[in-house]
Amino acid sequence: MSDGAVSPDTSTEIEDPHEGGFRAHTAITTERGGPRYGEFSEQVRTLMDRARYACPTPELTDELIDQLAAINDKLAAVRIDEWHSPAGTRIDLPARGNITLPPFEVTDVNDDGVFATVTFRDFHLGGNKAAHGGQVAVAFDDLGGYASAVAIQGVSRTAYLTVQYRSITPLNTPLQCRTWAEKVDGRKVFIKGTIHDGDRLCAEMDALFIKLNPGQQ
Ligand SMILES: CCCCCCCC(=O)SCCNC(=O)CCNC(=O)[C@H](O)C(C)(C)COP(=O)(O)OP(=O)(O)OC[C@H]1O[C@@H](n2cnc3c(N)ncnc32)[C@H](O)[C@@H]1OP(=O)(O)O
């Protein structure tokens, strides 16, 4: 760190409940960030959407830098560990409040798998109005992990994930995603997935998740 630089404030880390995997033994709560945290997440997503397509004047760029720096300073002052951050733990919000995921809402979980509506936004643009292929994989990874968790009632990590891009995945369109466990063989969980725009198949996933051993990172 250079002279005079200040480290981000991480003093709010009050405990480390991490015992392996990527889930902590913390109570599930929908309180963190307050009742309007979902609106906050939506504003962050909208910021990224608008920034993706904006061409500000140099003067506006100057102004926005100052405003965003002020916001970033406020957020840095309330930095906390990943286990207690509402982003990723607010199960009442789209994509658990995780702003790095394409927002999705799980509509059903049953013997046929996990069913969700996922919407790729302007900031997920790949090119020519289509979603970026990597973002499609992100959606599959998270919702595939969900299907794996349901199948084994435990935590797993992705060993491999392949995507077949069958047709254009549109932006700003509620799409139907289904992920399901095709086979469980010991610690190996073979997961399949599809994303449809109505009747049209956009992409398919074939993935292997490995159930983590106790304490495994
Ligand atoms: C609800 C929230 C959902 C969120 C989901 C998000 C999921 C993620 O993004 S996880 C992040 C991305 N993934 C990673 O970082 C994982 C990195 N890799 C690893 O940590 C390890 O390689 C890991 C855990 C996958 C497997 O390692 P390890 O636990 O030592 O298992 P290992 O003994 O090597 O393999 C177990 C079995 O799987 C097989 N296997 C492991 N990796 C592969 C692979 N890539 N391809 C094929 N088979 C494999 C092995 O051959 C072995 O098979 P068998 O039992 O028949 O001999």
Automatic annotation (TrEMBL):
The keyword Transit peptide applies. Keywords: Apoptosis, Cell membrane, Cell projection, Cytoplasm, Fatty acid metabolism, Hydrolase, Lipid metabolism, Membrane, Transit peptide. CDD domains: PaaI_thioesterase. It is a peripheral membrane protein. It is found in: Cell projection, Ruffle membrane; Cytoplasm; Membrane. Pfam families: 4HBT (PF03061). SUPFAM superfamilies: Thioesterase/thiol ester dehydrase-isomerase. Residues 130-200 form the Thioesterase domain. Residues 1-23 are annotated as: Disordered. It is an enzyme of class 3 (hydrolase). This is Acyl-coenzyme A thioesterase THEM4.
